[in-house]
Amino acid sequence: MGIQTRLIDYRDAGLVFEGNLAWDDTIDGPRPGVLVAHTIRGRSGFEENKARLLAEMGYAGFAIDVYGKHAIGSAFDDCRRMMDGLRSDRATLQRRLLLAVSTLRGQPEIDASRVAAIGYCFGGLSVLDIARTGEPIAGVVSFHGMFDAPGNTGSNRIQARILALHGWDNPLATPDQVVALGEELTGMGADWQLHGYGGVRHAFTNPAADASTGVTVYNSAADRRSWAAAKYFLAELFDT
Amino acid sequence: MGIQTRLIDYRDAGLVFEGNLAWDDTIDGPRPGVLVAHTIRGRSGFEENKARLLAEMGYAGFAIDVYGKHAIGSAFDDCRRMMDGLRSDRATLQRRLLLAVSTLRGQPEIDASRVAAIGYCFGGLSVLDIARTGEPIAGVVSFHGMFDAPGNTGSNRIQARILALHGWDNPLATPDQVVALGEELTGMGADWQLHGYGGVRHAFTNPAADASTGVTVYNSAADRRSWAAAKYFLAELFDT
Fold first, then answer.
1. Percent of chain A at pLDDT exceeding 70
2. What is the pLDDT of residue A79?
3. Per residue in B21-57, pLDDT tens?
4. Angstrom distance (rounded) from CA B123 to CA B47
5. What are the Cα distances from residue A138, in Å, to A112, A191, B183, B206?
6. Closest CA in chain B for residue A236
7. How does residue B10 score in pLDDT terms, banded at 50, 70 and 90?
8. What are the two backbone dihedrals, phi and then psi, of residue B62, each rounded to the nearest 5 degrees?
9. Using beta carbons and an 8 Å cutoff, which residues of B are at the interface with A?
């Protein structure tokens, strides 16, 4: 045996969502659980591969879904419409994310007291929103996330430690927005860190990024450095 | 045997400087060399301890001096005067720093093709200045350095990789100055990274920092995280 996976349904307001859990059954459980929040494209092999890597590190990875099971694999324009809808209705996004957190906590392979979240692009925004709700998870890691504040969490205290891994030339998250994020997170009492990578753009972890517009550009050094930083951060969270 | 140290004099424009080299003689040399640039206080046990830690990692550490051998151990006000003099005469500072680099390269324990620099506070500014000169060293790490551009290096190409480890609430290096540093380093073609630590102030690596004014404040988490980041960075530079 070794790395196992299981599809898991969860429900909110009449919609069914589908996550994919990965864990190593040669390691005695329960183990820390790490949610993986998806890009604009919805849950895909990209996030499932990250969940598998987390499983190989001795955690369980849970590639979640906030669009709905019916929408997995949708065309890009449909994905953009779903993302835009959730970015303009952050309370609904946050409810779906917290449902995914509680679903992860409820799995028998998971130590419910040791849960964290990582996310990419839109998923980077998503995991910051989990932290902003005040949910007591151990920590969150945003990879090339967007930073705009949700508007409904300003009076909360952040309990999760935060690590933002950021391409400094990301046109979707400018230096001014970095400064604003710092003010927001400090005001909410967070233990936060931001690693900025000079000359690096959006989606730097994705080898398949379409670099033609100059917005999304893979960067192998930033990919490697950010993953190493995330591993160190998770080990700090879970004392592993 | 084990960790060895040796005091080394070097000379510029009639002044004698004194550095302290540390290396592990149970490891076969030559080995990568890492210069350690000092705080406002001049070369002290603080930097010599970092040089020793570098030696224990298999490198050689070289705690340098840019004030002059006669001035080691000077009173704080004298140190401030010397630092202010060099901050307003960056060409002289840079010349002394590059002399320290060449002195390190010339030691028999050192692989002259594998040299880097780390520095603290004023030493953080100093190692950024080494990079700004275009000197082909492998990399520099600034711990709570000041970021003001020297004014005499804007047309250079930076060859050293750069890692700045920064307390986001450092009153001596504000978010606006972070943004300006990013523009400067990107404009000079650098491979740079900046790790910002939320709520952290100046001198966060120094347990003896006087926190009474709110400027210099030790932070154990940022101290540990920044050292881990520096270790990873040096290992990347030297492929160790």
1. 100
2. 98
3. 999 999 998 999 999 999 999 999 999 999 999 999 9
4. 10
5. 11, 11, 34, 27
6. B225
7. very high
8. -130, 100
9. 162, 168-169, 175-176, 178-179, 182, 185-186, 190-199, 221, 225, 228-229, 232, 236
Residues in A touching B176 (Cβ below 8 Å): 179
- Establish, for the pair of chains A and B, how many residue pairs have beta carbons separated by less than 8 Å: 74
Interface contact A198-B186, CB threshold 8 A:
yes
Q: What is the dihedral of CA B95, B96, B102, B105, to 10 degrees?
A: -140
Query: pTM value?
Result: 0.97
Cross-chain Cβ contact A186/B168 below 8 Å: yes
**Side chain identity, residue A147:** F
| SS3 track for chain A | CCEEEEEEEEEECCEEEEEEEEEECCCCCCEEEEEEECCCCCCCHHHHHHHHHHHHCCCEEEECCCCCHHHCCCCHHHHHHHHHHHHCCHHHHHHHHHHHHHHHHCCCCEEEEEEEEEEECHHHHHHHHHHHCCCCCCEEEEECCCCCCCCCCCCCCCCCEEEEEEECCCCCCCHHHHHHHHHHHHHCCCCEEEEEECCCCECCCCCCCCHHHCCECCCHHHHHHHHHHHHHHHHHHHCC
pLDDT digits (tens, 9 = 90+) for A5-54: 999 999 998 999 999 999 999 999 899 999 999 999 999 999 999 999 99
CB contact under 8 Å between B196 and A182, yes or no, is yes
Nearest to B198 among A186, A198, A221 (CB): A186
In the Cβ-directed half-sphere of A48, how many Cα atoms lie within 13 Å? 16
B103-127 mean pLDDT: 98
Give the model's pLDDT for residue B224: 98
